[in-house]
């Protein structure tokens, strides 16, 4: 991929001395909607943190526009990358509109503080995420789903060409899950590069233009959903027998888990030795 503005080369990631992922080579094609999938604790969120410069690689490097991302000033990175973390910490005593406005930090300068452009960006981000009516509510009083949409609004307010989302549908009911993913799809169609960690394989296949499949700290596969999401791949990575059929609505791959008896049989010692 020659058009990869964001990439990781031979990256090893660790928390203190505990290595989570080793020798990762990942390219995020500019203009793609890339979704990272894999079992729990396989390194998905850790990879996303390294791409966002939240976590420094133990070795290797992440590059943005051909330059090591670690070499950029923080504000410059914040103008290019917006990040929605998995479990953001809510500042005490802050209302929704104030939190969303923090997404404009990178656009502030010493001699140019709040501007009409900032106001418009915050208003639009809150409208898109349907939190405008919560503007004066304290964030720590909101439900988990409401908070998630507020944090997404803050990320959108940054107006970055690349948006990194770590499990953006967490805490959301089914309707709001699809609303958030539809919004991401619309942003992608408008030219933004989206990178998201998702747990739901069918959501991933429906919305992604590119999938990165991880297992045990390794990238197992990367490519279009139709190429990557096979029944054998799902069983190898998730230890779950299944069928992969065409989604009747979109034609994208749809994972249908096997009957519980067959799944239970696949976990027996006899099946494991087969």
TrEMBL record:
Stretches the record annotates as Disordered: 249-274
Keywords on record: ATP-binding, Cell membrane, Ion transport, Iron, Iron transport, Membrane, Nucleotide-binding, Transport
UniProt KW Cytoplasm keyword: no
Location (main, coarse): membrane
SMART domains referenced in this protein's UniProt entry, alphabetically: AAA
Pfam families listed in its UniProt record: ABC_tran (PF00005)
Domain ABC transporter span(s) in chain numbering: 6-241
Membrane topology label: Peripheral membrane protein
Record flagged with keyword Transmembrane helix: no
Top-level taxon in the UniProt lineage: Bacteria
One term of GO molecular function: ATP binding
Subcellular localization, as worded in the UniProt entry: Cell membrane
Protein name stated in the entry: ABC transporter ATP-binding protein
Organism: Paractinoplanes ovalisporus
Taxonomic placement: Bacteria, Bacillati, Actinomycetota, Actinomycetes, Micromonosporales
């Amino acid at each position: 991929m020659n058009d990869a503005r964001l990439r990781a080369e031979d990256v090893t990631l660790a928390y203190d001395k505990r290595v989570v992922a080793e020798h990762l080579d990942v390219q995020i094609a500019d203009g793609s909607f890339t979704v990272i999938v894999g079992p729990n604790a396989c390194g998905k969120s850790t990879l996303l943190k390294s791409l966002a410069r939240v976590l420094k690689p133990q070795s290797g490097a992440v590059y943005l526009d051909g330059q090591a991302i670690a070499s950029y000033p923080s504000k410059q990175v914040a103008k290019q990358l917006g990040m929605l973390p998995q479990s953001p910490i809510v500042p005490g005593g802050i209302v929704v509109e104030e939190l969303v406005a923090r997404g404009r930090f990178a656009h502030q300068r010493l001699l140019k503080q709040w501007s009409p452009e900032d106001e418009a960006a915050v208003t639009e981000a809150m409208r898109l995420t349907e939190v405008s009516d919560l503007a004066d509510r304290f964030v720590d009083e909101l439900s988990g789903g409401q908070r998630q949409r507020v944090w997404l609004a803050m990320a959108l307010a940054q107006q970055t060409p690349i948006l990194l989302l770590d499990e953006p549908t967490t805490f959301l009911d089914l309707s709001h899950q699809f609303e958030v993913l539809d919004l991401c799809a619309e942003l992608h169609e408008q030219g933004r590069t989206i990178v998201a960690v998702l747990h739901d394989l069918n959501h991933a296949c429906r919305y992604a233009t590119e999938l990165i499949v991880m297992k045990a700290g390794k990238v197992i596969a990367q490519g279009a959903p139709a190429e990557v999401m096979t029944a054998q791949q799902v069983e190898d990575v998730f230890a779950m027998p299944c069928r992969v059929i065409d989604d009747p609505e979109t034609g994208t791959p749809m994972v249908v888990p096997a009957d519980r008896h067959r799944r239970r049989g696949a976990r027996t010692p006899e099946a494991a030795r087969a």
